[in-house]
Amino acid sequence: MTTSVLYPPNPSVNRSNLPPGPPELPIVGQSFRYVRDPIGIMQESATYGDLVTMSVKPALVYLVNHPELIRELFVVNHQSVGRGRNIEALKYLMGDGLVTADGPLHLRQRRLMQPQFHHRRIAGYGEVMTAYALRHEPRWQDGARVDMAQEMSDLTLHIVVKTLFGLDLSDEVRRIGAAFELSNDYVTARGNQPRRLRALCHRLPLPFTRRFRRGLAFLDQTVYSLIEQRRQSGVDSNDLLSLLLQVRDDEADRPEDAVMTDRQVRDEVITLFAAGHETTAVALTWTWYLLAAHPGIQTRFHDELDGALAGRPPTLDDLPNLTFTEKILTESMRLYPPIWTTGRMAFQPFELGGYPIPAGAMLAAPPLITHRDPRWFDDPLEFQPDRWTPEFREGLHRFAYFPFGGGPRLCIGEGFAWMEAKLLLATLGQRWRVRHDPRHAVKLLPLVSLRPQGGMPMYLERRH
Ligand code: HEM
């Protein structure tokens, strides 16, 4: 393989100290290819090594492809890296919530919020999840063609609105969902723009910006009025919003700093909403797709459900018995990790894989690449849930499979997501078989989450 010469924007980088990378165009580097086909360029770059550079102007991106280097980045060097410029556009929506915060603020919020995600605390949401799947299911008809991406998005939207805010009126849910959808589109579009242009577009009264601001004002108004109601009534509604309002920081210097401000609570619930809704919907959509593409595996999935549940709806207590269902989800998130790439910015220089990483460098660790690496997974493009034996897991590097990230920024909602994905899959799988629409070509749409382009049309068959 040839080693390209890269021209880093940061003059402190000594070119001879750079990891290899694919050949690139003068001046623009890989920028256009990256915008057009980020997965393609990452896949190609990965063939140059475990630590690779590619120039996505104005940044030089270090692509980290080896589980041990990913561990060094996420765990060993976590204090040298953070979100930085990666997520400026996300802040328009999330403010300083867990996803976007860095440094001491991130550590404090994580310390305060972690106990609220303990499995004992979230166990009660299991009933909501199954109940909502049962409530959704009568919309389905035998032989109907549905967009499974939309179906899963609707279902997880209702669940997140209920578990976060305690709301379940359809009209409210729809309005909140629409405002989020618009905000998501906006921050994705702005996130792809160069920095100065983004800041300008965000300031100017452009139609898209104005629509975003209106949607955001509606979300803020909804969240702040819920916060006020809860603070005034003092009633614990058992939703995540109530749990956040009860948090007390024992390490605060002053009593007034021991509770989260309204603004911080707002940022956190909006963050949880944005981080938790789309990801689980995407995981489920790809899982239905893979089940449809592998009828033998779908039959074994149904056999497990019939044997373990004997026709009654699943509860949390059933989950340990649904081992094949868990393997199906694990394998599905290997092939289609909902967060297909994760990013960091170097806040101070450090060393990775024998190379100096300068302050300001951008780093990407894409689960999609590592999860499909033949060094860790035989026949990596095959859907093989049976590969996930306890022995296989034991021998696998912790960061060869990391759909939920790792280190201090490990997904705080991992337990919530597993519970939701298993319960929804089991509840719906008990009653329905899915078939893919052969006229629809499945393509990846790598936004923040890995969506199927043009949705996921599928045929439903009622099971007898
Ligand atoms: C299948 C579903 C999900 C997947 C695949 C997923 C994946 C991830 C990943 C990869 C990260 C780390 C990103 C990084 O290191 O840069 C992350 C962080 C996060 N996730 Fe999830 N997530 C899922 C569901 C959820 C749910 C249900 C919630 C909330 C209820 C949630 C809330 C968060 C938050 C707040 C963070 C930021 C944590 C921090 O930086 O401290 N996620 N998620």
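^ protoporphyrin IX containing FE complex. Confidence is low (pLDDT under 50) at residues 1-15. The pocket of protoporphyrin IX containing FE is lined by residues 98-99, 110, 271-272, 275-276, 279-280, 283, 338-339, 342, 403-405, 409, 411-413, 416-417 (CB under 6 Å).
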